[in-house]
C-alpha cells in the first residue's frame, strides 16, 4: 500500500524529501512510531536576541499522544509533549503569551534511530541504515493540571514501560511547580528511512581485485540495555519483573529492527 493511502502529514516545501525521494515517508504511523521509540529528541527554537543569528538546540524527552482522545492510535493526529525544567530558556519562551496572530513558539524537532553501518567498496558509498524524523510545530505550555500529570506519566513510561506506577506518585506540589510540560501542535513532518545492503558502482563490482580485498556488508546497530545495576541505596533483593521484561524486550526489538533493515523489510 502506498504512503498516500495512509493518514499523513501534508507535503510542503519545508518538509518534502528531495534527495532519495523514495526514502521519504509522511504517514502518521511511521513518523509517530519513530518519535515514540526515540530516547532523545533534539529541539531547535529561535532566540529573542537579535544579535544572535543562531537558533538554540537542546536534547529533550518527549512523547506523542492525544489528551483529548487517549485511546487513539498512532495512525491518527497526535500532539508532541516535551518535558523540562520550569526556568529553562525554552520553557520560559514557550510560556510567553502569543498574540492573536501567533500560534505559539515555533519549534523544529529531530528524532533518529541508527540501525546499521553500511560498508561499501568505496568510502563514497558508505552509509547508514537509519530511521529519522523532522517535525515542525508550535509549542504552548500545558496549564491544565490533569493534562500535565497525564503527559508526565506518558513521558515517564516512554523511557521505561510501567515505570510511573512503580515509583512514588503522585508528584509533590514542588515537583509539579518546578516541572514544565509543553505541547507541540505539529503542523508538518516527514520521515526518511534507509534500509538495505551497500550499493556500489557497476565498475567497482566488476573489479575482482578490489572485491577480493574489501569487506562489504552491514554492521547491525541498536541501543542495547545491560543488566540493571542496583544503587547502593536500593532495598529490593532482585530486579522487578517489569524492569527485567523491559530490558529483554528492548534488546530483542532493537536487534530485530537492525536485522530487518539489512534486508530492506522496513
Automatic annotation (TrEMBL):
Pfam family, one: Pyridox_ox_2
Domain of life: Eukaryota
InterPro entries, A to Z: Pyridox_Oxase-rel (IPR024747), Split_barrel_FMN-bd (IPR012349)
Gene3D superfamilies registered for this protein in UniProt: Electron Transport, Fmn-binding Protein, Chain A
Name of the protein in its database record: Putative FMN binding protein
